[in-house]
Amino acid sequence: MDAGNSRIKWRVGPQGDVHTLDWAQAEEWATRLMDTLAAEGGVLKRVVVAAVAPPARCALIKSQLAAALPDVSVQWLRSRARCCGVRLGYPDPGQFGVDRFCALVAARARHPDQAVLVINAGTAVTMDYMNASGDHAGGMIMPSMYAMEVGLTALAPNLGPFFADDRASGTGGVKKKASKTAKPDNSGEVGYLAVDTHSALVLGARWMMAAAVNQMAAALMEDASTPAFRILIGGGGGDDLQSMLGMPAMHVPDLVLEGIVLAARQQR
Ligand SMILES: Nc1ncnc2c1ncn2[C@@H]1O[C@H](COP(=O)(O)OP(=O)(O)O)[C@@H](O)[C@H]1O
Ligand SMILES: CC(C)(COP(=O)(O)O)[C@@H](O)C(=O)NCCC(=O)O
Known about the structure:
- It comes from Halothiobacillus diazotrophicus.
- With about 270 residues, the chain is of the alpha/beta class.
- It has helices at about 30-40, 55-70, 100-110, 145-155, 165-170, 175-180, 195-220, 240-245, 255-265; strands spanning about 1-5, 5-10, 20, 45-50, 75, 80-85, 85, 115-120, 125-130, 135-145, 230-235, 250.
- It has 2 domains: about 1-75, no CATH class; about 110-255, ATPase, nucleotide binding domain (Nucleotidyltransferase, domain 5), CATH 3.30.420.40.
- The longest helix is centred in the last third of the chain and has 26 residues, at about 195-220.
- It is globular and about 55 Å long.
- Adenosine-5'-diphosphate binds near residues 5 and 167.
């Protein structure tokens, strides 16, 4: 289970279907898990959680699990200095988000002899570079486009929400509205200038995101200390982010869940 800041994601076994739930519906989580078990079969022995969500939300998960599945063991993963061929760059691994850690573990397993740039597009967008030997050189954390909206509209409330209604309608965040704005003539060209508030806000957030990820990736490519790398993109906003990246990247939506399975085997 991947307990992020926006959503809970889980699957039963390494190949099960991926299920997601917004925190607003978190009270239903154990019921949904029981439904998953009933539909997919098998006997649940252990739940492994990678959580970056705040303590109150983790406590909610914990109490639901204790009530619904009292005999099942629960393992809360932590970022480790070394795991599954990954050597973490942070001197204090406890600071490093366990979701980023699991994504690195998954990337290493997918490409054991290659350098990778791992981008996680969740509530925050993180970018982490790991060389071909599994040494994580470090990374960065920036707000997702949705977080930009929340931050800007908190400070300038008259602007109103610009992505939130898309999220609520389950269209995957920004794509629908952004494409209306970014491709006004359906030519596929990204627009530069908007002439209404909503479009200006969407365009601004998209340009900030696109400029940041492209410039960061380009800077790494030019840096002799970070030799040629593959780019892997995970997280709920990964599809959209991939469309903004001006270089080849593989979209692996469930990179964190993949890494959880591998890290759990080693941290048991
Ligand atoms: N139904 C949805 N609810 C929330 N976010 C969504 C949804 N669909 C796509 N997204 C996008 O995915 C991001 C959240 O991705 P996710 O990987 O679940 O984040 P986290 O790990 O932080 O919980 C949001 O910022 C948004 O851009
Ligand atoms: C950066 C994050 C907030 C990203 O979380 P997410 O967007 O997946 O909810 C999370 O990885 C985290 O809390 N990290 C701790 C700080 C760090 O990694 O340096």
